[in-house]
Every structure is written in C-alpha cells, then in structure tokens.
Design goal:
The complex is a heterodimer of chains A (about 300) and B (about 575).
Chain A: H1 6-9, H2 26-45, H3 57-61, H4 69-83, H5 85-88, H6 93-107, H7 109-119, H8 121-124, E1 137-138, E2 145-149, H9 159-163, E3 168-171, E4 176-179, E5 181-182, H10 187-196, E6 202-206, H11 210-217, E7 220-221, E8 232-233, H12 238-257, H13 269-300
Parallel strand pairs in A: 1-5
Antiparallel strand pairs in A: 2-6, 3-4, 7-8
Helix pairs in contact in A: 4-6, 6-7, 11-12
Chain B: H1 11-23, E1 29-33, E2 37-43, E3 48-50, E4 60-61, E5 63-65, E6 72-73, E7 90-92, H2 94-97, H3 105-109, E8 116-118, E9 127-132, E10 135-139, H4 141-160, E11 166-171, H5 177-189, E12 193-199, H6 200-218, E13 226-233, E14 238-246, E15 249-258, H7 262-273, H8 277-282, H9 286-306, E16 311-317, E17 323-329, H10 330-336, H11 338-355, E18 364-368, H12 375-384, H13 399-411, E19 424-426, E20 433-437, E21 441-446, E22 454-462, E23 470-476, E24 487-494, E25 507-513, E26 519-525, E27 538-542, H14 549-560, E28 566-568
Parallel strand pairs in B: 1-11, 11-12, 13-18, 15-19
Antiparallel strand pairs in B: 1-2, 2-3, 2-4, 5-6, 5-7, 8-9, 9-10, 13-14, 14-15, 16-17, 20-21, 20-23, 22-25, 22-28, 23-24, 25-26, 26-27
Helix pairs in contact in B: 4-5, 6-13, 7-9, 11-12
The chains are: A mainly alpha (about 300), B alpha+beta (about 575).
C-alpha cells in the first residue's frame, strides 16, 4: 500500500533545490513547508515538463547519467560531509534531505530507471547537449563541424599538439592526443595539424555527434576475471559504436515514452556475423599498424 | 559525595573560562549509560580520553543509593560491600525501566530486582521504591538516572576544569521516542543538554570509521569501502548494526535491537538455580531482599567466571534455610539461556537482511559490550558471520563511549588539523513511523532503516461523505496489522476538510526527522478551488503524549469511533 503511494511522493525534493546554501530558522522552515504543499502537487503532475533550470538527481550529486553506483556512492559521501547537519548545522537539513532522496533513487536500479523515464530529456537530449558530457570546450560560436581524435588509432606522435597547442592536448596516461578546445587555434594551424597526423586519426565530425563520440572513446572499466583484473575497454570502432548508441537511445526513449516493455531489436545472425568479422578486421589492422610502428621504432634506436 | 554543580569558582578562574569558551566551541562529552556500567569520554584535542572518577575508575557502576538523607550514585560512592547494592537501598537497572509502562514484560521481569518494583498492569509508569530505614521511599527511574547524571556531570566538570553542558548519549537501538524523551528529561533534570542521542552500535561504527580512515592514511591508500557488522550486547540490551564506511563517513545500512542482555542471562540462571525463586521475589520482606541479593551476587559471579573457565562451583547460603551447592558448567549455562542466544542470532540475520548485505561481503565483525566476553556469544557471532575471528582493534567496553565522544566533537563543530575528526555518521531510523489509517491499520510513512534526516509525505483521503474532520494518530513501531501494537506518539485533528464525497478530499501527512532525531508531523487538507479559504496546515512536534499513552488510543477510539478515520489514496493509473 505504501508502495502504491510512491508515485505521489517520490520526487518532490528537487523542486526546492534552489534553497540550498541559505540559512533558515525553524520558523522559516515551517513557512517553506506550507509553500511546498502546493509545489508538490504541481510537481507530481508535471514531472515530464520539468524545466531545464532545475537540478535533477544526477546534477545534485554531480555524477554522470551513466555513473556506476560506486561513483554515486562516493559523490554522495563527499557531499554529505559538506552538507550534513552534523557539519553544516540546521541549514544543511533541506539539502541533505534532497541528497538522501537522490541517493536512494539512484542506488536502486528499479527506482533509477523509473526516474530516468520521468526526467526523460536527459538521455534523449544527450546528443544535442553540446556542453554536457563531452570533454572539449568550444572557442567562439558553435559550428556544425567539430574535431575529434580517434584515440584508438592515435599513436601518440604529438605532432598535432605541436602544431595547434591550444586545440589539442596530450593524455599522458593513455598516451594519445585528444581535442581540448574546439577551434582553439586558427583554421590554418588546425589544417596543418590534421595533415601532419601520420595515421590520419583526426576527423571532422558533425558537432551533434561529438558528445557521444567523446563519451564513448573514454575507456570504461571492464569487469575483471581472475588475477588479471579488469582493465579498461573502449569500443573498437568508435564511429560505429556511436551510431548504435544513438539508435539505442532513440529506441529507449520511444519505448519508455510509450510505456511499453519492448526489448531492444534483436540482431539477426547474419548481422552478428558481419559485425564480428568487421571488428576482427579492424582489430587486425590496428595490431599490424602497432607492430610496424614498434619495429620501426626499434630499428631507429 | 559529588561536588554541587553550582560551586562558585573564583573570579580569575571565571574570566579565564569565559575567554576560552569564546575562542573554542565547547566540546560535548560522550556518555555511555549502560544498564550496569557507565563511562564518560571526551575529545581532548588529539584523541578520545576516558575520564576517571576519584577512585581512578573508568567504568562506574550505574546505581543510586538512597541510604543517607541525600541520595548518592555510583560515580563517587564507594561501596563498602557488593551486598550493600543489594540491600534494597540501591536503585539500578534504570535503563531497563525508564520510559516503560507496567504492562511491559521487561518491567515485569524487573520485579525480581532487590528493590521495590510494583506493577498495576494498567499501562502507566511502574512504581519503584528504595528501602530507606525500613521504609519504601518512592522514586522514578528518571529521577534515579538524573541523580546519577548530576554526579557524572560534576565529575567531568572537575576533570575538564570547565562546566559541562552538552552531551552525546548512547542509547539502545530498541528505544522508542517516548523513552528518548524520558532520557532527555533526566538529562535536563541534571542540567545537561543532549546534543545527540546515538544508538550504541552507531557510536561503535563511528569509531570503526575513524580507525579505518587512519589505516587508509597510513597505507597511503584511497580507503576503499569497508563493511562492518557491529554486535553490541550489554547487560540490558542487544543491538546490531551494519555500517558501510569509507573516507571517515560511516553510513549505517541497518539497525536491529531488542531488550535482551546480561540481565536476562542472570535472571534465567537465578531461576535455574532456585526453582521456587518466583515466590521469593514476589514478597518484598527484608530477609527475602537479602536472599535475592545473595543469590544475585553469587549467580553474577558464576557467570563472570564461566567466561574464563569451563565450570564453576556455587556455594551460597540464602539465610532462610535454603542453600545452593552446585557445580555449574558452560554447557548447562548455554542450555538454560538457549533462547537468549537464539534471539541474538536471529537479530544478526535480520540486520544483514535489512542491510541487503551478504555475510560474505562483511569485512569486519565487531563484537562489543560486556556480554561479548561470553564464549558462547563470541561463537554465535562468528558462526552467523562465518568468520574465524573478530575485529581486534577495539576495547569492547570502551568502544561505544569513544564513538560518542567523537560524535560529540564532530557535532560541536571541532576540527582536527590531522583530519582525525573528519568524520560523519549517517544514521537511519531504527523504527518505522506512520499513522493509523485503513480501518485501524498501521500505515508506515517513514519506513525502518530510512536514512536520516528524512522527510516523507503521503496522501490520505476521507472514509465518509462530507467528512470535515480527520484524526491523525501517529505511531512508532513494527506492528503492521494493528496500529495498537505500536507505540503511540501523539495525535491531533485536521479540521476544515472541504465537504465532498468520500475519497475525494486529499489530506497530506508529512513526517520530518532532522539530524538530531526530532520528529515533526505536518498535516493539511488540500484545497483545489481558489474560492475556498485555505486552512493553515498543522505542525506538531512528537511525541506529545506523556504517561498513560497506552490508553489514549483506546479513549480516542471510544470517543470518535470511525467517524474521523482516514484511508490511503490508491495509486492513480
């Protein structure tokens, strides 16, 4: 029975997210509660129409929409240490309430899925949200094309960083280049750097696709087996992966909108085989390239 | 005898103190009032320090004697002999009696104590009295506790060379809000301000969090998450908590607690040794009290010895012609108390289940409290947790009070340059809180083990057409079926519900628990039309009921029947 009421009282907290950081006396609290009454009502009826200025649970906890529960936990604890009433006094009460609610929902897979549906646009607008999840920032106006480094192919020669140091940066940990600022240098420098790339791994892509590509190229922790541990994994072909990711997102959005439980489109055996072959081929190519490069490097020494 | 709390210090001392209090916030002390023993600790600027009384004791017996004109407690008083405690003049086990009504089985069991506990079985505070010069002088558990706390406060004040006002107290998990208000009242009588009431195992969890953080620092590690299971069994209560800790934050996952402890072991053994003990206990003559006292001391002694040796010889002359000569071994002891140990096991299992944690995922198993010395208790904890050994880094008797002192420093806003106070406990509610609805059922609004601070709202509606009033009756507890199985916290009436067919008006009830565990209930009838004048919503701080809360619900039911009932709103699809 209490569960049946969940829908009514589940997500009222983010409504009042604007209040954090202020000091209130208990009497103000009461006043505020009275206001909240009416707010909760509109909130629960217009869950879908939530305006963008509000903080959703992910923003509240400062985590990505796709964060693992471990990351959410860490973020939650960090914020609790700052805002818990034991530390921040009574003024932390409201904010901690929101944190607790957000944490509870995001830590439970079923509640999280429901919540994702209710905030909908976060994942649907994923690819349109230019500043949201990508790495690179924009210098100047948004343009239709953006630079993207396929880090799978990059050999870490640093030529692009040398030619356009405001645009490209070197990820020393992964040993590959990536775009730091879109159009950080003038077009000529950028052209030179693209041409200078020995493996042609710098691409002009549609700027709408950029966040997804940049997101997918980020290595994701891989589940480990045995003593070798997890390691990191990224899609073999980021462009193909981005396409299927977008497709999946769209499908998920439409599915969830219609409240149907239709599962994702199944791959036909032929498709699966083709995909497997393609990825094998890409893998082989990459390997031989690496091998050649290594041989050359040894010879040079 | 304790120093009076109002001793006037010399002028120079006074000004010095004012100066220091203006630059440093007062550090709240931690107090662990146990059923049998009590201790005080404080953060001394670099670590937790346990305070000692004038006789250099860290652990002080929790009792108050009414022998002389002025009552004195176990903090300063020197017992000439253990038997003095059992002559009828001393009140102890206050923690088991406080805030309980005389229909409570725990109070009934306390009738075997060597002082007067009278029960009328009508749901009011039991009558307790101490024997002073052959007269039963009445007192209350709160009063006895307050007398004891006054002594503690004076002792801490002398040790710390400053007046002590703020305290963090540890409490059993199973304490309801009514009992908590009684503890707070006892503290207020003793001139103490309660900053936090911490369930005992969560205090231990905080100490564990600090230790883990220090280990992580020493290993230069990032400090990954550690899951700890804390089993705390003292003389009066048995509590279990599961905590997840990382980076100094102790996040309580679940709590479970019940009223079983060393006292039950003791009473079971007394009944075992003297089968007709009940008749002895029921009459409260001078010689009977002496006999109870002798039996109690002998049994207690035997149980202590059994923790270290396999069998023990009991030789006691109860003075009224009955003698006990018996060799008691561990096996017999464990057999007599089988039910108590089974209850402990089920408590651990329940807590793990509530925390949604598999026993294999627990990193450390911590057993504290006086009963953790009993081999059987150690065994059962290890067995249930499938472990070979317990966590070693803690003194079982000092862990709770040390945790309370840490919380006292943290909640007083003290910071430590070395990061030793970079701590936080995220508490959960030990009991569900809800209202009576759906025809006398208990509808929980805040479930058990909800993270605090918590706020939950639920919408209810009327059961009659044109019902303009509704009774909000707030309960705390676990009884799901019948609201009366739970503890009544308070009640109030919502008036001015707009006239409408049944099921149409919306009455929202919101429960808010803040970090210091204060419960506020907000309720209001919602108005849809703009032409209707809105009624102010209600805010009620609970619990509001005092003595005799057992009857209130009955009386309300008699007076109102079901005319002001509520039902939950079903989900609209």
């Amino acid at each position: 029975m209490s569960m049946s009421l969940l829908s009514i009282c589940q997500f009222p907290e983010p409504k009042s997210s604007h209040v954090h950081g202020q000091c209130f006396t208990p009497s103000k609290l009461i006043l505020r509660w009275g206001q909240r009454c009416s707010m909760i009502r509109c909130c629960k009826r217009e869950v879908g129409k939530r305006t963008k200025t509000e903080k959703n649970y992910y923003e509240l906890l400062g985590v990505y929409v796709d964060s693992e529960s471990q990351q959410i936990k860490e973020a939650y604890r960090k914020l609790q240490k700052k805002y818990h009433p034991d530390v921040a006094g009574q003024k932390g009460h409201e904010y901690t309430l929101m944190l607790n609610e957000a944490y509870k929902v995001l830590m439970r897979e079923d509640l999280r899925r429901k919540y994702d549906v209710s905030i909908g646009q976060v994942r649907r607008n994923f690819s349109k949200n230019r500043s949201g999840l990508g790495y690179s920032s924009w210098n100047g106006p948004l343009r239709s094309q953006a630079l993207f480094v396929d880090e799978n192919a990059c050999i870490g020669c640093r030529d692009c960083v040398h030619h356009a140091s405001n645009t490209f940066t070197m990820d020393e940990a992964l040993g590959c280049a990536r775009v730091k600022v879109q159009y950080g240098d003038d077009e000529q420098k950028i052209e030179v750097s693209i041409d200078s790339c020995p493996v042609n791994c710098i691409y002009w892509v549609e700027s709408e696709e950029l966040p997804v590509l940049e997101f997918l190229i980020k290595p994701q922790p891989n589940e480990g087996y045995g003593v070798f541990g997890g390691g990191w994994e990224r899609p073999k072909n980021v462009f193909v992966a981005a396409k299927s990711f977008n497709k999946q997102q769209e499908q998920q959005a439409t599915n969830e909108n219609q409240h149907t439980n239709a599962s994702h489109e199944e791959e036909t055996p032929a498709q699966a085989e083709a995909r497997a072959n393609a990825s094998k081929k890409i893998e082989m190519e990459r390997f031989s390239r690496l091998w050649n490069w290594a041989r050359e490097a040894i010879r040079m020494n | 005898m304790a120093e009076p709390a109002y001793t006037v210090a010399s002028d120079s001392e006074n000004t010095e103190e004012e100066k220091s209090s203006s630059t440093f916030p007062e550090i709240a002390i931690g107090i662990d009032i146990g059923t049998s023993q009590c201790s005080v600790a404080v953060w001394n600027g670099s670590q937790v320090e346990l305070l000692k009384n004038t006789r250099n004791q860290k652990m002080m017996r929790s009792y108050v004697t009414f022998k002389d004109e002025v009552p004195s407690g176990g903090v300063s008083n020197q017992l000439s002999h253990e038997h003095e405690l059992l002559s009828g003049a001393a009140i102890f086990n206050m923690k088991r009696l406080i805030g309980r009504v005389d229909t409570d089985p725990v109070v009934h069991a306390s009738r075997s104590l060597p002082f007067l506990v009278q029960t009328m079985d009508i749901g009011v505070r039991p009558f307790i009295a101490a024997l002073v010069n052959n007269v039963w002088r009445s007192t209350t558990p709160e009063e006895a506790l307050a007398i004891f706390l006054v002594e503690l406060r004076a002792m801490a004040g002398i040790q710390l060379k400053r007046p002590v006002r703020n305290v963090v107290l540890t409490i059993p998990v199973s304490f309801g809000r009514f009992q908590l208000t009684r503890i707070e009242r006892a503290c207020a009588m003793a001139g103490l301000h309660v900053l936090r009431l911490m369930p005992e195992p969560t205090a231990v969890a905080l100490l564990y969090a600090q230790q883990q953080q220090q280990t992580a620092h020493d290993n230069m590690g990032s400090g990954s998450e550690k899951i700890g299971l804390i089993f705390n069994m003292g003389a009066g209560y048995c509590d279990v908590a599961v905590t997840a800790t990382a980076g100094g934050v102790s996040q309580i996952r679940a709590l479970a607690g019940t009223t079983i402890g060393g006292e039950d072991l003791l009473q079971n053994m007394m009944h075992h040794l003297l089968p007709n003990a009940e008749t002895l206990f029921s009459t409260h003559g001078i010689s009977e009290i002496k006999a109870i006292g002798l039996l109690r001391v002998a049994t207690q002694d035997a149980i202590h010895k059994l923790s270290f040796q396999a069998s023990v010889q009991i030789d006691v002359d109860l003075g009224n012609g009955s003698k006990i000569n018996k060799v008691l071994d561990r096996q017999e002891f464990e057999e007599v108390n089988k039910k108590v140990f089974e209850k402990c096991e089920s408590l651990i299992i329940q807590c793990l289940h509530d925390a949604k944690i598999e026993v294999e995922d627990v990193n450390d198993v911590i057993a504290v409290g006086g009963c953790s010395y009993i081999p059987k208790v150690k065994d059962l904890v290890l067995n249930v947790c499938k472990r070979q050994e317990l966590y070693k880094g803690m003194n079982p008797l000092e862990a709770a009070v040390s945790g309370a002192a840490l919380e006292g420093a943290v909640a007083s806003g003290i910071s430590d340059p070395f990061g030793n106070l970079d701590l936080l406990t995220i508490q959960v509610t030990p009991l569900a809180i809800g209202i009576r609805a759906d025809g006398g059922k208990f509808v929980p609004i805040i479930a058990r083990n909800t993270t605090m601070p918590a706020r939950k709202e639920m919408t209810f509606t009327t059961v009659h057409d044109n019902q303009t009033e509704a009774l909000i009756i707030v309960y705390e507890g676990e009884g799901q079926q019948n609201a009366e199985e739970n503890h009544l916290l308070g009640y109030f009436k919502i008036v001015g519900i707009p006239s409408a067919p049944k099921g149409v008006p919306e009455i929202s009830v919101c429960l808010d628990i803040d970090a210091s565990n204060v419960l506020r209930v907000y309720a209001s009838a919602k108005h849809r039309g703009p032409h209707q004048k809105a009624m102010p919503s209600m805010e009620v701080r609970m619990p509001t009921v005092d003595d005799g809360h057992g009857w209130c619900a009955e009386a309300l039911h008699r007076a109102y029947g079901s005319t002001s009932d509520l039902v939950t709103v079903q989900k609209k699809i």
